[in-house]
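Thread: Glycosyltransferase family A protein, structure

OP (GT): Posting the sequence first so everyone is looking at the same thing. Length is 284 residues per the record. Can we get the structure tokens written out before standup tomorrow? I want them in the notebook alongside the other entries.
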Amino acid sequence: MRYSIIIPAHNEEIHLKDALSSVHRQTLKPTSVIVVNDNSDDATESIIDEFSVINPIIQKLTIISSHLHMPGSKVVSAFQNGLQQLQDDYDFIVKMDADVILPDHYFEKIAVIFNNYPKVGIAGGFAYEQDETGEYKRNHPMDNDHVRGAFKSYRKDCFLAMGGLRNAMGWDTVDELLAKFHGFDIHTDESLKVKHLRPIGKAYNKRAKLLQGKAMYTMRYGFLITLIASAKMAWKQGKFNSLLDNLQGYFSAKNAKIPFLVTVQEGSFIRALRWEKIKGKLLR
């Protein structure tokens, strides 16, 4: 299968070499790799140039944006800029972060998944992060049928059906919900162990939690599902304040009448899907 990779990169000189090296070693080679140099002021650009010489399918796109960390919107905006440079001749498209190391056979196995399971729209492995001893251990705070936003592969038909990625926090949740809305499945493979070099949530703060609550509003979760989802995250993180911050973000978005990310019909489907999952867990 033919596939293309888009890698948003903002000041990634520490990790980018490892990420691009893992792409270069893939047993199934991509047809193109676009690294979006998003307003970097470190050695990110020179690293991309170095790899472009080694492997001509690796291309650089430089854009100018804010230096602020904007969870969700900044990375998706960079991805969308890269998407504009792509040819249309791919079977699946990959959104990859600049701080992950993929196993050499990663995309060979992703291609097998898409070939063998025509209904699969999104596929990926699991993230492993270093603990205090330096050992890589699985860190997957979401459900096992969720693919982390750092290494997502989308079947072309699914990507087009859901209208690409939403430029907002929560994009890597709404994409899977919309994929299911359009009749596609999510597939995770436990054998695909991805090394994530930057611990999850390291750059997140109170502002990010407010945006998370806003995302739940814009996905049309409704208050009760937002409350349950926020409480679950707060419990897993051991941070009660994150529950309050999420709810504050939700009601701020509601009072400001922020535009929704999904249609009324999509929202109805999403709520039904969420309630089904919640009830399923309660009955276990």
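GT: Both are above now. Quick notes for whoever picks this up: The chain has two domains: 3-196, 206-282. Residues 103 and 266 are 35 Å apart (CA to CA).
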